[in-house]
Each structure stands twice: as structure tokens, then as C-alpha cells.
Amino acid sequence: VAKGAGKNQWRRYQADLHGAMVERLELRSALDHAAREGHFLLAYQPIVDLGTDEPVGYEALVRWHHPTRGVVQPAEFIEVAEESGLVVPMGRWVLEQALHTVAQWRRILPRSRQPYVSVNVSVRQFREAGFADEIKQALAKAAVPPHALMLELNETALAGENESIRPVLQDLRDHGVRIAVDYFGSELDGLPLDVVKIDKSAIDDIAQSQDQLTRVQGMVALSRQYGLTVIAEGIESTTHRDLLAWLGCPLGQGYLFSSPVDGTEALSQMTDRLPLVA
Ligand code: C2E
Ligand code: MG
Ligand code: MG
């Protein structure tokens, strides 16, 4: 009996594995289709000055408008898009769309309130030949100054790639584009960066755990030593905001200020000039 059960378990495991593979393949072709049909859209989340609660920039976050499932979040498709390489053309669209939007905002808003836009970039995009030139051309085409664009890389993706992408980072940075990295560790020593983003997972417990608060304090201090600006992600309460401001963290993002919104609502946030806290 035991032997039979084992065999059944094995069969079920095989069937699950097969099902998962089929699902991934289906997701891949649905994503290809979405890219061809223009079914992606961008949401924008404010990056806020923790001294004034006013937005200084907006992070562009991709969504997939699925014909039957509605709006699908990146957690459900970015990984497959990376694997299949689709993240490259998708990223190109994200960049162009984000630049187009920030150009519009900057035309409408007075100089003192003109935001920058921050775009998440996959390491796969950085590895494409001509990536830096593509960025420069997109900036020129949208008539957006380089300092109004920030590129976000994620550290886990960066690990072990430092040397191959350093010249690309340096080139873009020399051009005036800002470079941010999600999270911060020893891997990043000496990379040409401007901004460190501290992940939500590090921020979550700072009000409950003295150890965690000390750890974040260390990250902020270290970043400043390197001459980097800090953005804390996942600020959900005024306690988070106040603690971070007290630690000397200049900028933050999170649901306390605003969840990601569409471009029109982001523009209202900037024109209303109201502090982004309830
Ligand atoms: P990320 O770059 O770390 O973006 C922050 C994520 O945290 C976003 O999720 C945002 O909606 C969410 N978030 C912001 N504030 C809060 C908060 O206070 N509480 C909580 N619980 N969550 C908060 P989202 O939009 O689902 O994006 C997930 C990840 O997908 C991003 O993480 C980024 O790595 C990736 N991604 C998004 N857009 C793009 C893109 O255009 N290209 C690439 N390559 N990756 C992207
Ligand atoms: Mg990001
Ligand atoms: Mg993050």
C-alpha cells in the first residue's frame, strides 16, 4: 500500500510540475500578446520630501491591463518577462511612456515644483548593447533634461554584474541621469550611484524593534558617508515617517503618502500643493 501511495504522490508531483510549466508558457505568450497590443500601463507613486511631505519625484510602476483578469501587478509577470527577454521591449515602452508623462507634467508645473521620474530597469536591459545611447535618445526625443530621470536597479539582480555594467552606469551618470539602487550592501562598493532605496522589509519593524531601528540608522549613515541620497520605501504610518525623518532620512515613499496612482491623479497631487499625509 505504502509503495502504491508513493507512486501516486510521484505521479501527482509530475502532473503539478507539468501544470506549472504549461502555466508559465501560457503566461509567456499572453505577455507577448499584451506587448504587441499595448496592454501595459503605468502607475506613479510619489517620492516625498520627509521634511515637507511634498512630492519631489514619481516612481513609474508597470501594470498589465488584462482583458479578462483586470489589472495584473508586476509580481505576477516580471519574473517571466525577465526570463523570456520580453522585459527588454517592455522596458523600452516603460521608459518612453514615463518620459512622455514627466515631460507633460514639467510643461504644466512651475519650475520649483517640476518632478523627476524614476524608472525600474532590469539588468537584462543594461546588458543590451547601446543601452546608454538609447536612454540619451529617448531623453532628447521627449525633451526631458537628464536630471529629470532616475533609473532604479535592484541589488539582487546586480550581484556579480558590477564590472560588466559599471561603464554603462558611468556613461549615463556623466550624462546627468540619476542612478538609484534598491537596497544597499557591500556588493555596491565603488559603483557610480546617487540614490539608495531602503526596502520596505527593512522599514516595517522600526517602530517595534530597537535593533531594526539601529540597523536602518546604520544604512542611512553609511549611505550619507558615501555621498548618497536615501529613499525609504514602504512608509505606512506617521510613526514610520517621524522616526525616519529623525534618523536624517531625507526622502520616502509609501501608502501613508499615496499608493501608486494614474498620471492624471499624480498631476493633481502636484498642482493641489497639499502635503501628502492624511
Ligand atoms: P519596487 O521597485 O521595490 O517598487 C515598490 C513596490 O512596493 C511597488 O509594488 C509599490 O506599489 C509597493 N509599495 C509602495 N509603497 C508601499 C507601502 O507603503 N506598502 C506596501 N505594502 N507596498 C508598497 P509594485 O508596483 O507591485 O512593483 C513590484 C516590483 O516590480 C517593483 O518593486 C519592481 O521591482 C518591479 N517593477 C515594477 N515596475 C517595473 C518596470 O517597469 N520594470 C521592471 N523591470 N520592474 C518593475
Ligand atoms: Mg523601484
Ligand atoms: Mg524595493
From TrEMBL:
Residues 24-274 form the EAL domain. One of its GO terms (biological process) is regulation of DNA-templated transcription. It comes from the Bacteria. Keywords: Membrane, Transmembrane, Transmembrane helix. This is PAS domain S-box-containing protein/diguanylate cyclase (GGDEF) domain-containing protein. It comes from Paractinoplanes atraurantiacus. The lineage of its organism: Bacteria, Bacillati, Actinomycetota, Actinomycetes, Micromonosporales. The chain holds residues 715 to 992 of 992 of the full protein.
